[in-house]
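Human: We require from you a protein record containing the residue sequence and its fold in token form, and nothing else.

Assistant:
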Amino acid sequence: MIQEKIIQETTPVSKTDTAVIEIKELYKSFGKNEVLKGVNLTVKKGENLVILGKSGSGKSITIKCIVGLLAIDKGEINVFGTDITKLDNAGLNEIRVRIGFLFQNAALYDSMSVRDNLGFTLKRHAKDLSSEEVENQIKEILESVGLSEAIDKMPSELSGGMRKRIGLARTLILKPEIILYDEPTTGLDTITSREISELVLEIQKKYKTSSIIITHDMACAKHTSDRLMILKDGIIHAEGTYEELEKSDDEWVRSFFI
């Protein structure tokens, strides 16, 4: 296994050595199909970690395990210092509120306007807010993603890039400390993909988030990552900065950067 040396980040975002996510020897199978075979990874506070890997390598499975959407077979998943695999539903929900998850398709409610999509999420978790407070928070978060004018639109009226932004707004409205991005630029044109990547960095800086970003988009990986990991055969095969892995002695690792 290759273990690339990590160089000091130059991103002007405050980072610490405190781990907000720490996975130890994570195993996950589906029947006889062993997907994860001892994954170990750490995400530090304020860091953007990008995970690369071929299709079916277990990237999305890993982040679904982090929020308890999938039960693991073996291992530890420590989030904010707590092993979530030992929590009951109530304890797991307390952790989930602090984690935002941006799905590939943005997962908006098609029958609700943008305002109602955001308001539904906010009121579900902050029942003591007044209608005025809810409205103000909706407008603030839409401004953060550059879509204030879309507040009364329906999801069917939005472009793919706008849907991603609204999905991100719905994630941000609960002020998560961790954001898990599952293919944030999939299906988008080059310019829109760049805009979403820029937005990921803006969110990291403004909200001081820690993130895992699953992507096949190497431009997104280069632009957003403080550090990268590459999954192969169910384990972390290589890690380092974009520049380090691009120059790796391992031909398979370099193949991602061609």
